Protein 1
Amino acid sequence: MTNLEVTSSAPAEPGGGLAPLWGDCARMAPHWAAPQRAASRPVSPSRIHGVSVPARSARLLDAMSDYGD
């Protein structure tokens, strides 16, 4: 049988504050490579199209109070 024990350095309580989160981010930052900054170019208006949303998704968003009210 496989041992599925998981250990975590996250705070035990949700209100642990931002200090543990900042520490975790500082430890992980060296592992993340920043992508080269790409120069943004203007987009021709002829390439800009409307957004189409399936009716089922639109009904779902309309029923959510955060979006529909």
Note: Residues 54 and 60 are 10 Å apart (CA to CA).
Protein 2
Amino acid sequence: MSIDARTPKMGPETTAIAEVDAKETLFARLARTQWLQILIVLIAIVAVFSVMAPDTFPHWGNVRLIIQNASILAVLAVGITFVIITSGIDLSIGSVLVFSGVAAAIAMRTIGGDGWGTAIVGIVVSIAAGLFWGFFNGFVIAKLKVPPLIVTLGTMGIALGLAQILTGGVDIREVPEVLTNSIGYGNVFGTIPIISVIALVVIVIGAIVLHRTRFGLHTYAVGSNEESARRVGVKVDRRLIAVYALTGGLAGLAGIMSLAQFSTTAIAGQTETNLNVITAVVIGGTSLFGGIGTIIGSIVGLFIPAVLQNGFVILGVQPFWQQVAVGAVLIVAVYVDQVRRAQASRGGDVSVWKHLFARRRG
């Protein structure tokens, strides 16, 4: 008997059923995606505020303000997503942002002038300062085996303390006009803030690196199972140092963006930045246990507190309710993550390891 004779033929009805099953599988998979669930929550919040304040909330001017206010945190969220996927944490990003801004402000004040030459020096110094702190965090975590929570808690205090020592506790307000006018208050097409365009570029590049490169694949592998990652050839220590250095560099970039937007170092203005960003990333579906997370999820999670804060201000609601709402969403997000991990462990989801073994054999 020929192979064709043994193989059942697909009639029109069978094909239709198969297509329905494929669609149902796709829809079921999407329904289980946490960032998509959070996006639905965000859309619902936006809809509620739009109905309650139709003359103010849904207008482009207000939407633009929300996006601009979230831009600096979005840059930080990209780095924190990488860190948490490795099953780590970085509590120092707010302090690193402040220190980087202070270092840049001092460098630009020392050089003097309001031109791009001075501004570029400040940008380079800010990012370099962030890279230094990130590399330091990664080295101590990877090589000295000190837990990330302890290391970054320590550098959080050290970086902020050094920033206060360098400034005497007084904010530096001498910022080149070209920096504030072009980046802080500049617009593209007359309406889109340049600071938001910078954040968008960082988000796109971060998403490509995380989801389309070997670096991203290895980041997931380290967070899924560090020992297994070592066995398939991933240089775990080097990867951890690179991830924390990346996060520090992005904190340095956020530092110069903050300096450009507010025209001051704002030493006391970043006390809750680290917790706000970590909360947003976790709400967006990145697992605190490592190995799971997306850039788009982190950005969606970031806009929930941003929209809540803006909406409460417009409606005249006490801002304390924002903390209550965000805290409740965070608890639900972590619970959903635990349920999802339990289901994945029973189902044996090993897609990351399939890719790694395939690359190794290739």
Note: Residues 34-270+287-339 form a domain with the ABC transporter involved in vitamin B12 uptake, BtuC fold (CATH 1.10.3470).
Protein 3
Amino acid sequence: MSNKDKFSVILPVFNERDNLNTLFAELKRAADATGRPWEAVFVDDCSTDGSLEIIRSLAGANPEARYVAFAENRGQSAAFCAGFDAADSGIVVTMDADLQNDPADIPAMLDIFGRECEMVIGWRARRRDTFVKRISSRIANAIRDAIVDDGVHDTGCSLKVMRADMARALPRFKNMHRYLPILMKTAGARIREVKVNHRERGAGVSKYGTLDRALAGIWDLIGVKWLISRHIGYTVKEKK
């Protein structure tokens, strides 16, 4: 099997110590079932709960596990970008480390990827979040759709499959991970959605999804709208 079939699972981590062993065990089971070469790239965002020690242990015991450790807390977007840069494959899979995304959905998403699409997005049709987080998400989605309509049901689902070269070429800014579908679409990616399982959080507490974060995202939306309006695209007719 050629290296183009290999995929890299990018896992930003901030204080998820009690979820990591279970996460990797589930991921290994799902990834091995694909029959493809794969790797897990953990990106520790300067955790303070001992997550990095668990990651080091996983990397030491499993050839598929690698990691990047930040010197200071830089946020989820920076962690995803560091994972894109570190990935040793042509396909990147992004997911959260809190066990709400189900690794068992990855094989089906990979089967669809490449069939007239450069990105596959998970759609959490049945959310397992707290009431506050669900309401915050609905408000954020309504505002986002009014300003930048990416044409997908669930842009906030972290479980995504993308072409690695396209992901690396995207403009980078704080909170850019929230706008990956519209950024990829602007870059020429064809997108498909797949309904995926969504679970209650494992151990730890949520770091994202509160109302103040949803409202703060309006500023990001204005910037994304500007980026899209200034995008330069072209089609080559002929070259020598």
Note: The radius of gyration is 17 Å.
Protein 4
Amino acid sequence: MSGLQRFALCVLVIGGLNWGLLGIFQFDVVATLFRDGQASFGARTLYTIIGIAGLISLSTLFTPYRVPHRIVKKDNVRPLKSV
């Protein structure tokens, strides 16, 4: 996972928590941060960034999961010392 995808995932988690608070408690954190509410330029910009993060994270659904393989050479293997 690239750094951009990790950043997008973090932004999505923050956006998801905001939607959870909005759904459960009817409290919009983003609109509260900006005094003009959801119509302010800052809130619209933040909502746009969260939307772009969702589009970036969409690509992680279609990438196959790869298990990193560790290659061990026989030359590097040493016997365990007995105590």
Note: Helices lie at 3-25, 29-33, 41-58.
